[in-house]
């Protein structure tokens, strides 16, 4: 495992991209039961200020969830894996076509949930997630059910395996796309991207950051799998950036 002492500090030319669940927030049994560390919004706000607004939350969650968990004015967000992008000026862009079958698929999953006690569905504006953290023995069965369900929409929809979950999303969206799009916009353009994430869905975001000369930091490999360690490192980075501004 790489230590946080082995990675370069953020500089005033950094652009910071942060996953939410499993990175900034500890994983909860259900997505609606997560705990937000009291100091976290303040640390994110300090980093936003020190980096000229070049901080973005890149998450699978809907935009409304991010605003509820981190109520910060001017925060850039790539929600639903980049299907919805909000820039620091508040402009919101849709970067995924709606799936006309989505509502029918949601109804089909809801009708089948009784077959997998403990599993539940998380609805999003474009797609949805089926979580089986509380029903691990049904993972393969759920995956096959979803594969059969969306097969007729091949080329327009895809199934993304995540941590104890399967996500149905529009083809072509992803965290790598979100990073590339944001890096072409002010205040991110011309900076060095740093992406921090923990899940398979974050790998493409890390790869995009690295392809642009930046870094992809995996929570399990760099921070011991602990969101608390990520939060502590970000607080230290905020301290250092603020000190460099006054030096």
TrEMBL record:
GO BP annotations, alphabetical order: trehalose biosynthetic process
Necessary cofactors: Mg(2+)
MF annotations from Gene Ontology: metal ion binding; trehalose-phosphatase activity
Pathway annotation from the record: Glycan biosynthesis; trehalose biosynthesis
Pfam family, one: Trehalose_PPase
Keyword set, alphabetical order: Hydrolase, Magnesium, Metal-binding
InterPro entries: HAD-like_sf, HAD-SF_hydro_IIB, HAD_sf, OTSB-like, Trehalose_PPase
Record's catalysed reaction(s): alpha,alpha-trehalose 6-phosphate + H2O = alpha,alpha-trehalose + phosphate
Enzyme Commission number, as recorded: 3.1.3.12
Function: Removes the phosphate from trehalose 6-phosphate to produce free trehalose.
Family: Belongs to the trehalose phosphatase family.
Protein name in the entry: Trehalose 6-phosphate phosphatase
Species for this entry: Acidisoma cellulosilyticum
Gene label: otsB
């Amino acid at each position: 495992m790489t230590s946080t002492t082995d990675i370069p500090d953020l500089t005033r030319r950094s652009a910071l991209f942060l996953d939410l669940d499993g990175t900034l927030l500890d994983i909860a049994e259900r997505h609606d039961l997560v705990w937000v560390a009291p100091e976290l919004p303040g640390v994110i706000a300090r980093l936003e200020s020190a980096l000229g607004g070049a901080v973005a939350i890149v998450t699978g969650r809907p935009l409304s969830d991010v605003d509820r968990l981190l109520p910060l004015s001017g925060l850039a967000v790539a929600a639903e894996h980049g299907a919805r992008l909000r820039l620091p000026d508040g402009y919101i862009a849709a970067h995924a076509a709606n799936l006309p079958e989505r509502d029918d698929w949601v109804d089909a999953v809801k009708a089948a949930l009784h077959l997998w006690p403990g599993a539940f569905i998380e609805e999003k504006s474009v797609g949805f997630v089926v979580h089986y953290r509380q029903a691990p023995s049904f993972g393969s069965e759920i995956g096959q059910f979803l594969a059969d369900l969306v097969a007729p929409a091949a080329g327009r929809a895809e199934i993304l395996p995540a941590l104890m979950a399967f996500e149905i999303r529009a083809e072509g969206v992803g965290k790598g796309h979100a990073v590339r799009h944001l890096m072409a916009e002010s205040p991110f353009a011309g900076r060095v991207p740093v992406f921090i994430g923990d899940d398979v869905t974050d790998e493409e975001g890390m790869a995009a950051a690295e392809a642009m000369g930046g870094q992809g930091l995996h929570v399990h490999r760099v921070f011991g799998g602990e969101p608390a360690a990520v939060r502590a490192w970000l607080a230290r980075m905020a301290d250092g950036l603020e000190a460099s501004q006054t030096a």
